[in-house]
């Protein structure tokens, strides 16, 4: 289990956490390392345990999932956050994605699909439903980075296009015959030049401006 994906569960319903743990513990490549019942406790545990992936509810006491996401980003915590919610409204999901979530699934998701989602976000992918991606774009007509695409090099535009296709750094490295370290440098430069916070925003910027892999 040394190479297992470490997962932190953050949900105010104990029965939900128990169900998630019960299923995930039978996965050979996933290990649940902790649980929290509210966003503030989740942030504290994420800082202590440094999990690979956080499964985060949106509506919680003390600190909700969106504020917890913002706090994790402020702390530069590297965990990939997958929202697990019972709310289907875009007005609930979109703020979480804007705050830095790598994607979302619903609480009635098929267990195997949940495990696949965890593996996917851990690999660097972004899980966006088309209608939510559209909502993010339509609500961000004046998003940061507008007009700055000309500052990107040809290689950075290639990398950005592959990010928009949902490729992980490893997959981008293979596609472009680069080292992962070089890809990470390109990604950092892209975010800096476009004044974007994360890969989700970069992917949305690329879609808006027609940059594809």
List the helices and strands and how they pair.
Elements: E1 5-10, H1 14-24, E2 30-36, H2 39-49, E3 53-56, H3 65-74, E4 80-85, H4 90-98, E5 103-106, H5 111-122, H6 130-138, H7 154-164, H8 169-176, H9 180-194, H10 199-208
Give a structural overview:
The chain has 213 residues and is of the alpha/beta class. Helices cover 50% and strands 13% of the residues. A 5-stranded parallel beta sheet has the order 2-1-3-4-5, sandwiched between helices. Strand 4, helix 4 and strand 5 form a beta-alpha-beta unit. The radius of gyration is 17 Å and the shape is globular. The model has no long low-confidence stretch (mean pLDDT 85).
Keywords:
213 residues, five-stranded parallel β-sheet, 10 helices, alpha/beta, 13% strand
